[in-house]
Amino acid sequence: VPARTQTLVHCAEAAPDSLNPQYSTSGNSYDIAQQLYEKLVNVQRGSLELEPQLATGWELADEGRTVIFTLRQGVKWHRSK
């Protein structure tokens, strides 16, 4: 079993412009953000099907204009300022 560490080491071709994926569209920043954040849902590799990640389920409401997510047990939500 590998030892756990508190340090993330990432080799990249350039420094990220942000570690917050809401504020960046660069590929390098996206690659790093994928290691730091989980999404509500993920797209299954090789298909267009959605699979749960932080959300255990979701439903459409308001004639498809609203998506209601059910979060996995124990998930803590954080809003960025």
Note the main attributes of this structure.
alpha+beta, two-stranded antiparallel ribbon, two-stranded antiparallel sheet, 4 strands, extended
Secondary structure topology:
Layout: H1 27-36, E1 41-43, E2 50-52, E3 55-61, E4 66-71
Antiparallel strand pairs: 1-2, 3-4
Written account of the structure:
There is one protein chain. With 81 residues, the chain is α+β, with helices and mostly antiparallel strands. The chain is built from one helix and four strands; from the N terminus they run αββββ. The longest helix is centred in the middle third of the chain and has 10 residues. It is extended, with a radius of gyration of 16 Å. The relative contact order is 0.13.
* Biggest β-sheet description: 2 strands, antiparallel
- What's the average pLDDT? 85
Shape, please? extended
Major sheet: order of its strands? 1-2
Compose a concise summary of this entry.
By secondary structure, the chain is an alpha+beta fold. 12% of the residues lie in helices and 23% in strands.
